[in-house]
Amino acid sequence: MTILVGYLPTPEGAAAVDAGLREGALRGERVIIVNSPRRGAPVDEHKIDDAAGAELLKRAREAGVDAEVRQPLHDDDLPETFEQLVRETGGSLIVIGLRHRSLVGKFILGSEAQRILMEASVPVLTVKAEL
């Protein structure tokens, strides 16, 4: 089984990695850190480079967890990207970080996190960054 962790280089992403690595160590499961840039975007400030990926893998090793970093491209359907990874890897849990958004912001823009919560075929653990 595998734990999938949604990661962006933000405090919420760091909190998700921390929680995912704790879960991986607790369950004895492999962790895949998913940093999914949008297909066709000329610049994506959330895409991590090799050094950042290596740092995430170092943290996993220090936690005693077997891990890898994947950067699957997605169009406008990030929840489906996670669902494909669940099927492909035998995923048992998805871990994502949540950021505070106003009700109006959620209504107007929708929420990828909300869709992951509602549509995922496996349990989803959500975490918040410490204030």
Automatic annotation (TrEMBL):
Pfam family, one: Usp
Recorded superkingdom: Bacteria
Parts forming coiled coils: none
Domain UspA: 2-128
Annotated InterPro entries: Rossmann-like_a/b/a_fold, Universal_stress_UspA, UspA
CDD domains: USP-like (cd00293)
The family this protein is said to belong to: Belongs to the universal stress protein A family.
Name listed for the protein in its UniProt record: Universal stress protein
